[in-house]
């Protein structure tokens, strides 16, 4: 049986439960009822994701949160408290949104695939968190929204991740109306990969993680970086770039081993080189 290491962070503003089983690192938001992205929560998440990226024992990262709320976005009480500052909160607001942007980019730039396991509501920056992950699996009960327009605050930073998942009109529908969509609609929009019964959510995510963890970690790193770089390029530039990536990938020891194993009809032994 794989070793399980569990640590619970005691920071009342943003605790995370950390568990590693084999090559899968599970980061569980544990700040109910809202699992809000306070500064402490964002710092803790970013630190663990960056640590996972450098840890050779980690192959896949899972972001999860049990219960009715996956993540309700930014901590509005924390933000509102700083309106009493001399600058009406400008410095704190700048720090909050900069930290949030850094967290989302850390997920995208992490060399390990990141999977969102969504059981409940993902709203505003919580939806941004889901959309920033490489894969997302949702329970039938999960819901999603960008409700900033209801309170006079357009979800501009969540829009970045949302518009890179959904089509323009689907993204604008969510942003302009602020209405909540169900898991089936989120799948139709491209926000999640699969929608499953709640009782099978963890099982399905673990299956994804185990499948991915069985691959060459170097190949996953190369592929994830290339995916996000080429998707922002024009067609010709994308082909030029990915052709170069393929050449370098072919020269890697893991590619040599993988192709040799396929030809020799044996199981490859990955070295991450």
UniProtKB/TrEMBL annotation:
Name of one Pfam family that matches: ECH_1
Keyword RNA-binding found: no
Species annotation: Ollibium composti
Source taxonomy: Bacteria, Pseudomonadati, Pseudomonadota, Alphaproteobacteria, Hyphomicrobiales
GO MF term (any one): enoyl-CoA hydratase activity
Keyword Magnesium: no
Protein name per the record: Enoyl-CoA hydratase domain-containing protein 3, mitochondrial
Xref: SUPFAM superfamilies: ClpP/crotonase
Family of the protein in this entry: Belongs to the enoyl-CoA hydratase/isomerase family.
